[in-house]
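Hello,

Our lab assistant flagged a job as stuck in the queue for most of the afternoon. It eventually completed. Since we weren't sure the result was trustworthy after the delay, we are filing this so someone can double-check. Below is the sequence as submitted and the structure that was eventually returned. Let us know if re-running is recommended.
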Amino acid sequence: MLIHKHPYVKFRRVVDRLDLQQKNIEEEFWIYLYDDRIVTDEHDLDIKMVFDISYKMLSAQYGFLYLHTTKGVITFQIKEDPNEMIAKFRTVEMK
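-- returned structure --
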């Protein structure tokens, strides 16, 4: 059952072939928090594998969300405060 979702962004660099200008394309993805797992576009983690979630906003526009897992820290670039997702994670995390 889906409990919460939070957006994150990835940047892809492309070169415009007409004017040879490098451009950054921002793509939005979602972190889905279920009662038994966390799913992103690249990861499907059992909730038992996630020890903690933390974040740090670096500016008014961007920050980083960190999933602390048994496989290491997974970092996501975010634009919105993830406090609601972290609070919901606390209700299902395994201790």
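-- support follow-up --
The delay was a queue issue, not a problem with the job. The result is valid. The domain at 2-92 is CATH 2.30.29.30 (PH-domain like). The first helix runs from residue 83 to 92.
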